[in-house]
User: What shape does this take?
Amino acid sequence: MRVIAIDGPAASGKSSTAEAVARRLGWAHLDSGALYRAITLAVLDNLGDDKAGRGGGGGWGPQQIIALTEDLPVRLVLVGQVFRPEVAGVDVAEAIRAERVTRRVSEIAAIPEVRHWVNVRQREAALDHPQGVVVDGRDIGTVVFPDAPLKIFLTASPGERARRRLAQRGDSVDPGQLGRETEALAARDRADSTRPVAPLRPAADAILLDTTTLALEEQVQRGVALAQARFPE
Assistant: This one.
């Protein structure tokens, strides 16, 4: 299996690192979070957000969500060497980063039926790209690809992750905003780590990499070095 699993909490640098590592290896990149976000966007746009509750999707029935993802459809499309999320044939790579999606994605991702649907699509994508796929998410090494030859778990301090998230959005990094973003990420961490299905945690054989003081290029270099050692050509 030519799969590299990169997991970690929100804003730990998973997607940026995974995409760059994949590009340098000549492999494909798959961001599992983008697929969960695409489903969340589809639900908000087509089923409305007034039914939303806390803890597993509120008034949205799991089968209703799955039927929607199949009918629209929500899918991954390989563009170059990157799997992009589409909803009803439209590239939603930018739309899924909206704040309203960010607020609700943990809710949707906690639904067992949704997780199963996403996991199946990720495995299919990897099988369709035997050259190699770098997949990032929160349960890639523990649930989706437990037999992946290389598993990396990225971490970073809450404050640094909050700073990165604000910079990514182009927001000012003043103390008040930084504090609010840190609290929001802490809440996301609690939700992801305590959910009953596929909680966020490093796999037993994952290599832990603290990126708090690392620049993106350093993260990428370490990922590439690990990959080259594990997958000699």
